[in-house]
Amino acid sequence: MTVVTLPMPDRRLETYRMREPVVWTRPPSPPASRVAYAAAHVVADPLAAHSPGSPTALDWDATLRFRRHLWSYGLRVADAMDTSQRNMGLDWTATRELIRRSAAAARDFGDPADLLACGAGTDHLSEAATMEEVVAGYLEQIETVQDAGARVVVMASRQLARLARGPEDYHKVYATLLARADRPVILHWLGEMFDPALAGYWGSRDLETATEAFLALIHDNAARVDGVKVSLLDAGHEVRLRERLPGGVRLYTGDDFNYPELIAGGSHALLGVFDPIAPAAAAALRALDDGDRERLASVLAPTVPLARKIFETPTYHYKTGIVLLAWLAGHQDAFVMVNGAHSARSILHLAEVFRLADQAGLLPDPGLAAARMRALLVTAGVTA
Q1: What pLDDT does 8 receive?
Q2: The whole model's pTM is what?
């Protein structure tokens, strides 16, 4: 049995005994009952400078290897989105290259339009001063995604949130973008817990008023919308929204707290938490295909405490826990992040992420995970 000494909130040190590893079986085919995207993180070049504001430097081999890992479990990949540190360090130069390289890698598994959805936004125009500039910025990024052959995810725009005077401005901008898309897109409603700069998106800080504006846009453009990705961490609101969508428009849950019941109830998935729990997510979706909802619930239940820890307040730092787990699971060689974001969570937080991931059976090599966790703990003075 593998043992690790972990720090506790009361300053005690606890001897933690790891479980036997779980052997997850790769499904023979992608899930049939739900469309499921894992929002993927990027792997930073461990020997590059990653101070805040520095140019992005990625380990491309490891970044693409992780996407192949997700595809191998039958999941689709959502790329160049907030899990990839958009608006939190991943610059547009690297984002363009990420989209291009991920689409090329997807071709080894099938059609990139089916397997890959990439974010298009306006983060390369931080000083945009007019709505026309916002539209032009969006269209530049949409063209990049389309040229690569991937599906477009229209991301929420900080610049639009700053400039828009009300719902009509959002409607006008998005209608223009949808008219220029070469295939139906995914619209992303990212809540302010993930990005405080997006408070009041769709033209109101009142949730129900914003929802009505959002629905009006979708109903007016239903043929151009594949689905909506909702990241508000409000399960009741998501269910109500799902019930009011036009026929043929999917609801992709982005609720990393309540995903088991939302998926069981009819939502599709586009989730950051599917990055670290991909083997369990694939097994759960396979159970749903087989009509075994009890199995779906039992497989995902141990992952929920882990997800709630990773995405705890401040939620926008969730990427740190996701990258930690990729390192502990052996998907990358270093715990280093773009923009220095690996320092965004405390050692107590990271120790609990380690514990919960082990309990969920998501550390395939306990010896490797333990050795790496001990090395990290030494930097905090935990040497027992």
Answers
A1: 95
A2: 0.97
